[in-house]
Amino acid sequence: MYQVWVEESFAAAHQLRGYRGKCENLHGHNYKVRVTLEGPALNSIGLLCDFKELKDALHGAVKKVDHTFLNELSPFDVLNPSAENIAKYFYDEVARSIAAGPSEELKGINPPSAPCRVREVTVWEADITTATYSE
Prior knowledge:
This protein has a 5-stranded mixed beta sheet with strand order 3-1-2-4-5. The chain has a single domain (2-134), classed as 6-pyruvoyl tetrahydropterin synthase/QueD (Tetrahydropterin Synthase, Chain A). It has helices at 51-65, 83-100; strands at 2-14, 27-39, 68-69, 117-126, 129-134. The chain is of the alpha+beta class. Strand 4 and strand 5 (129-134) form a beta hairpin. Helix 1 crosses helix 2.
C-alpha cells in the first residue's frame, strides 16, 4: 500500500461547549493538519496522487476555517469544535474534493491519479497534542 501526505497550518478560535475548565473560554490555536492518502497502485508515471491536487484539496478546506471563530461555522455551530471533530471535518472535505477529481487547471496536464482514498487526518492544536481521524 502506498501513502502520501501533505500538511498545512491555520489559525482559528474556538470554545468547547460543555467543557469545565479553561477551554470553555474563547481561545485560539495555531493548528497544523496532515492529510494522508493511500492506494494499492501508482499511475502510469509512478504517482499515487499529484501532490498539487492534494495540496489544493487541503488548501480549499483550510481556507474555509482560517482566521475564523469555528463555533460560528458549519458544522461546528452544532458539533463541538474539538480537535477530534476538526480532524473529521478535514477528512470529509478532502475526501469529497479528491473524489471530485482534479481542478480544471490540473485536468489533462498529468496522467490521472491512481485510485486512492483518504487514509487519515491528524490535527495538531499544539506541538504536543494531536487528534487523528480515520475510517
